[in-house]
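#data-curation
PF: Archiving a pair of folding outputs for the training set. Convention for this channel: one message per protein, sequence first, structure tokens after, nothing in between. First:
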Amino acid sequence: QVQLVDTGGGLVQAGGSLRLSCSASGTILSISAMRWYRQSPGSQRELVAAITSDDSTSYGDSVKGRFTISKVDGQNTVYLQMNSLSPEDTAVYYCNADVTYLRGRNSYANQYWGQGTQVTVSS
């Protein structure tokens, strides 16, 4: 039905940058919002950034001014540009989306998650 694939993680030195990508595929009718969450060992999953269908954005306090979320509508893709990375940003990053999709002749709404991509920032 619907699948989210998030990519772009890796190992980077403190002060460096990475760009994460998340692509949604399937019988998608619309996506009302896409988000990035992150989770480090022993911590709860936290919201990093969100973007709605009308391009309204919001950010967690710890990433404001450093991270930028953007999307490409026709491709159902969202990006997270991460600059000035610090070791505290080390986590698994997950894409999340609110999707309306078609199955048969009916439409359904559900929330989906990507598989996660590891970001490691060395000091």
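PF: Second:
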Amino acid sequence: QVQLVESGGGLVQPGGSLRLSCAASGSIFSLNAMGWYRQASGKERELVAVVTSGGLTNYADSLKGRFTISRVNAENTMYLQMNSLKPEDTALYYCNADVKTIVRGTLFRNDYWGQGTQVTVSS
């Protein structure tokens, strides 16, 4: 079993910054790509950014320059630094990971999601 736990969300004023964290734990053989997604009220979940185990990154075009994704492989942790926040960044932010586990000698590969952390940008 693998758990992803997000933290770092909260209420911030427009123009402010937040740093989200996602910690993966459990019977992890390897963590492949990890990513942040968000879902605003009444909207579909959308990609924010992804980072491979090798450190390659990809961002939603609209967020390039304001958000930075990173990870520390040795700690199974991923981060999202969010700067110059806007009210339209308000959403529930989810951590996602492509994880390999070994159960009774068999390798499995599954996609896991965290519970989400709320980010609210408002004055």
